[in-house]
Design a protein that fits this description.
There is one protein chain. With about 525 residues, this protein is of the alpha+beta class. Among the domains are: about 110 residues, no CATH class; about 180 residues, no CATH class. It is about 30% helix and about 35% strand. The protein contains 3 helices and 27 strands. The strands form 6 sheets. The protein has a 5-stranded mixed beta sheet with strand order 3-2-1-26-27, with no helix packed on it. The longest helix is centred in the last third of the chain and has 139 residues. The protein is elongated and about 175 Å long. The N and C termini lie far apart (about 130 Å). About 5% of the residues have low confidence. Keywords: Coiled coil.
Length: about 525
């Protein structure tokens, strides 16, 4: 799901705004006490957009149109001020998955960029203001074949920023976290959260609460099943509570989290259906997940929206109510207080049943059973007290049952580890094959390089011989050219001499003719 096309509902104090794209992809903003709803925010169709507001309640937005223009918009109270951040060449590069969050009064913009000549190499890039100018920084580069958003950017009520993103780590991905703290005005060093192996429908959601805990969930796989994994991170001591919240046989295509009091709800989509599961958040840092999954809006297709509220730790998304147009459902009513209390009591009883014996007592009893295996079947008549015998028998039976449970658990763990070892062995075999194939290719490449080097030396020798001949030919050509020039000069001189001789002969004949004419004139006079 491309969440950048969803509506965005902002609540700033008592003022409510709704941003939405119409059927022609024009972005509108309605609501508020100012005249924001007189026309589209931007004069062209919008491909993606994201909205947030700063500590003073001023709204900022980023827009990406279909021509590759990437804008930052800021509402000054009466109109929108626009700044062009970047104009991409849509035939050579692509921008998508844009987002914006404010830290105090500073906008922090994140987006994905890729060169279409290498479309699987994704750069997660940020824009931020520094000294009245925009700065650009590449957060990381990662290879992704599937069109998923590889990061999540959110903030808490104190305007600290939290950025979770994917990075490559050989055949798997690492999910990392970076924290921008208002008091230091800089990003902390990246924190490794977990590994991720499934990317096709990857999505990650972060919710910070008021106690300094982060609730991070993401779509992944567990063996052959699809799942949503969660992580509860306490930033103060970096304590992590991890696990699998939801596990399915079919792909989970999208989800989001919602926190109300001590209940964490995950609403997730599987195909055309939508469900929700919940967990109880204890003060000791435990996250107790209910195995009861329920359909969400069974008869209707939910319409999701992004939300930005002052209690932003509650959720990043919500759902429109089917009864009232453009009003939001109260997601806190999904799980009643009575249901949560009943689930908590059941969990307490389960814990009480699982821990009736002290670990040291259990260990000593196991050791006694191993040293005296037949003693468990004997009757304890030494004191003649049947009650004591019965208690001892029950304790031994309980210890035996506990030992059996431990053995079964260890056997299950061993089976799982054997499967993992089998998978790792298969991967190792594939790696060895790749290495062997690579070694053969390298040997072949070296032989080809050697042959090419020999051929290159031969060609160099032939080129040297040809260059020598060319030098000789050039010398001969110059000599012939000089001789030709000399012959042409001699020819010209000869032609001039012949012309002069012809002139002399002609003049001599003219003179003789003139003499003859004078002679006849004298005769006939």
């Amino acid at each position: 799901m491309n969440t950048n096309k969803l509506d965005t509902n902002l609540t700033i104090g008592d003022i409510h705004y709704r941003f939405y794209l119409d059927d022609s992809q024009y972005l509108y903003c309605i609501g508020g006490e100012d005249a924001v709803d007189e026309g589209p925010v931007y004069s062209h169709p919008v491909k993606e957009y994201a909205v947030d507001y700063d500590v003073n309640g001023k709204i900022g937005a980023v827009l990406l149109d279909f021509e590759g223009r990437f804008y930052y918009y800021f509402f000054n109270g009466q109109s929108w001020d626009a700044q062009l951040l970047y104009h991409s060449a849509i035939d050579a590069e692509m921008i998508d998955f844009i987002d914006i969050k404010f830290s105090d009064q500073t906008p922090y913009i994140v987006f994905c960029w890729r060169d279409l000549s290498a479309p699987y190499l994704i750069s997660i890039v940020s824009y931020f203001e520094e000294a009245d100018s925009w700065k650009k920084e590449i957060i990381c580069r990662t290879h992704l074949k599937d069109p998923c958003k590889p990061y999540c950017l959110t903030r808490d009520h104190q305007y600290n920023l939290f950025l979770s993103f994917l990075t490559n780590n050989n055949l798997i991905y690492d999910l990392k976290l970076s924290v921008y703290r208002v008091e230091s005005s800089q990003w902390d060093e990246d924190i490794y959260l977990a590994s991720c192996i499934y990317i096709k429908y990857f999505s990650v959601d972060i919710l910070p609460d008021t106690n300094g805990d982060l609730y991070i969930s993401w779509i992944d796989k567990n063996k052959n099943n699809y799942c949503i994994k969660y992580l509860r991170l306490t930033l103060e001591n970096m304590k992590k509570n991890t696990g699998i919240a939801i596990e399915k046989k079919f792909p989970i295509t999208w989800f989001f989290q919602n926190i109300h009091k001590n209940i964490l709800t995950i609403i997730h989509c599987i195909g055309e259906a939508t469900y929700f599961s919940y967990a109880l958040l204890t003060q000791k840092g435990r996250t107790i997940w209910s195995k009861k999954e329920k359909p969400f809006m069974l008869d209707l297709q939910p319409v999701f929206t992004r939300i930005r509220e002052e209690n932003i730790h509650q959720s990043n998304y919500s759902v429109y109510s089917p009864q009232a147009k453009n009003s939001l459902l109260d997601l806190s009513e999904l799980v009643s207080h009575e249901e949560a209390q009943q689930f908590l009591e059941e969990d307490k009883m389960k814990d009480a049943n699982l821990e009736p014996i002290n670990e040291n007592i259990l260990s000593s009893r196991m050791a006694h059973q191993r040293s005296n295996p037949t003693g468990m079947l004997r009757k304890h008549n030494l004191s003649g007290n049947n009650t004591t015998d019965e208690v001892s028998r029950k304790q031994i039976e309980l210890a035996g049952a506990e030992e059996k449970n431990v053995i079964n658990s260890l056997a299950a763990e061993i089976r799982y580890l054997k499967e993992e070892v089998k998978k790792l062995t298969e991967l190792n075999r594939k790696y060895l094959n790749l290495i062997n194939e690579g070694g053969e290719k390298i040997t072949q490449y070296k032989e080809n390089i050697r042959l090419l080097e020999t051929e290159k030396d031969t060609l160099h020798h032939k080129i040297a011989v040809l260059e020598k001949k060319c030098t000789e030919f050039e010398r001969e050509r110059k000599k012939l050219h000089t001789d030709l020039q000399l012959l042409q000069q001699q020819k010209q001189e000869l032609n001039e001499a012949l012309a002069e001789k012809d002139n002399m002969i002609i003049q001599s004949r003219i003179n003789e003719n003139e003499k003859d004419i004078g002679f006849f004139k004298k005769i006939f006079k």
